[in-house]
């Protein structure tokens, strides 16, 4: 949803100064590695959000788009209602655990399906890696490479014969377990499918479950 709101209402060429709100100290939080004062485009921050699951990038996008994290969360909830994601409520921009932050598998499909309409979203989620060149707060050049964690895209997991994985998004917290949503294509019919697995107890089981689901596409 953070990506969807940014793509729908933002300008990818906007220059964003990473705010103090991007400092996250939660143990195990996945980060893009941006720090307050860094200057990146909104497009670069979207890569930092979606490829390494950068919670710091999420907060930078939120403050830029909404004026504050709270302002952006309001935009997120309004967009969820607009697309019919009625079992969802956002409490933050990055998905870190909050008892007032929740979503159903179906709503995740609705949100992903809406984001998938944007060519830039599809471009980012199918990328194996991305290098961002930007300027830090001291005016120095920084080059940072983010690598995809989706094992279907990286080739660490084989895709069932007759199916092409077009891209997706991983997500992991202690509360949510190992999660993955992907778009895939039946090579014969060219039909597109979206598949969701939530709350797996391990990364291995996550990909086993997803492989079982997408193998049904051609059966």
Provide a descriptive summary of the structure in words.
The structure is a single chain. The protein is α+β, with helices and mostly antiparallel strands and 219 residues long. Helix content is 36%, strand content 23%. It contains eight helices and seven strands. The strands form three sheets. The protein has a three-stranded antiparallel sheet, with helices on both faces. A hairpin with a 5-residue loop joins strand 6 (177-186) and strand 7. The longest helix is centred in the middle third of the chain and has 14 residues, at 69-82. The model has no long low-confidence stretch (mean pLDDT 96).
Task: Set down the secondary structure blueprint.
Blueprint: H1 2-9, E1 15-17, E2 39-41, H2 42-50, H3 55-66, H4 69-82, H5 105-115, H6 119-125, E3 129-135, E4 141-147, H7 151-154, E5 163-173, E6 177-186, E7 192-200, H8 203-215
Antiparallel strand pairs: 1-2, 3-4, 5-6, 6-7
Helix pairs in contact: 1-3, 2-3, 3-4
